[in-house]
Amino acid sequence: MRYRFGIDQGMFLVMDFRKTRLMICVAILPILLIAIFVSTGLWAKGERPETRNAEMISLGERLFFDASLSSDGQTRCAACHQPEHAFADSRATARGAFGRIGTRNTPSLLALTDEAPLFWDGRRSTLEAASFDPLIHPREMGHSDENEIIAALSSPSYRAAFARAFGTGSAGAPGRETVSRALSAYIRNLPRPPVPFDRYVEDKNPSSLSREAREGFRLFTGKAGCDSCHKLSGKPVQFTDHTFHPTGTGLQTLDGQLPLLAKDVVTGSTDPGAIGRLIAERPDLAATGRFSVTHEPSDLGLFRTPSLRYVADTAPYMHDGSVPTLEAAVDQEIYWRSLSSGHPISLTVSERASLIAFLQSISLNTGEAPPSKSPD
Q1: CA dist 251 → 41, 246, 254, 255 (Å)
Q2: 82 has which bridge partners?
Q3: Which is it for the CA torsion 317, 318, 323, 329, positive or negative?
């Protein structure tokens, strides 16, 4: 049988089948997209679904406080990220296995966000990638190979815990991916206590802050210009722009050495783990900052802007821990900002005290540890 335009019935059947197949594809496309977002961790601004997995969080906590994962059997993640110091420590630079000293100050985990590049030089872009590095770092947990970590997790107790968190079979076995995911889930779910400034913002009640702290906030966003880098973004406010800036710390000691240092950097490995191990051995290379990652001359001496949440609880300051007190940090920042802006910023004694009072209002200042404990 023939139809108009010379198209037979068989052709219509083919066209109808293609139309049906197209409709099915359109119908299942949203489901496929959701599956991709969930499986790749792009759902909810980078939050992976496992952050709500109680078994995974529990396993991550156990790993975080387990000294048997270190090469000396005495060092744990919590040795540098101490609950009583807002999950930082009170040292200038981190101390790892066998008392080995690093070159970088330990950042607070309570101020961590998924939006920021991680480490002072931004060499890691995700918490999952960053959380495994210390385990195979010679100056942190002391191991040199991930197989040493896997061997330390071979006990029946650990294997059962991994199976509860990730399922049975090879996918749930201890390894780089599962360890990283468990640690990341625990860190993302750390209780983050509110600070007085949070109540000031939420309640819109001036009495939530002292008069001195309110004056300090006015200076922070005005005359002192602190918010040009420590942005009032995020909920709760994170006080960072997640980018890199000069700090005036470190490079001034390297006069005459920069050409050779630059050569050492650009001829070295571009692997983030290798970069971390190299700068831990050499304070001079650590002072080059973001340049050690990008090899861009404009990044020389730039470091990630840290969040100021809990800032009064995490002394000493700067990437190398060279500034011992909050007062000294304010003085250095004001001095450096005066140089970089091209005009002097002068604070009176009263204004300096007010600015410090504000910084204390975005901190705990209780001397008490946030609610976390070492597992039995």
Answers
A1: 37, 9, 5, 8
A2: 88
A3: negative
Give CA–CA dist 84/331, Å, rounded. 26
In a domain, 371, yes or no: no
Place of tokens 């000031």: 200
Query: Does residue 258 belong to any structural domain of this protein?
Result: no
Measure the CA–CA gap between 310 and 367, rounded to whole angstroms: 12
Q: How far apart are CA 207 and CA 146, in angstroms?
A: 52
CA-to-CA separations, 72 to 68, 87, 138, 157, in angstroms, rounded: 8, 22, 11, 21
Distance (Å, whole) CA 27 – CA 21? 10
Dmax over CA atoms of the chain, in Å, equals: 99
What range defines the domain where residue 210 resides?
Answer: 196-250+301-361
Three-state SS for 282?
coil
Both tokens of 373, joined, read 């404990």
The predicted-structure confidence for 229-271, as pLDDT tens digits, reads as follows 999 998 899 999 999 999 878 776 776 777 888 888 888 778 8
Give me the number of domains the chain comprises: 3
Q: What is the pTM of this model?
A: 0.82
Q: Crossing angle for the helix pair 211-220 and 196-203, nearest 10 degrees?
A: 80
Write down how long the chain is: 376
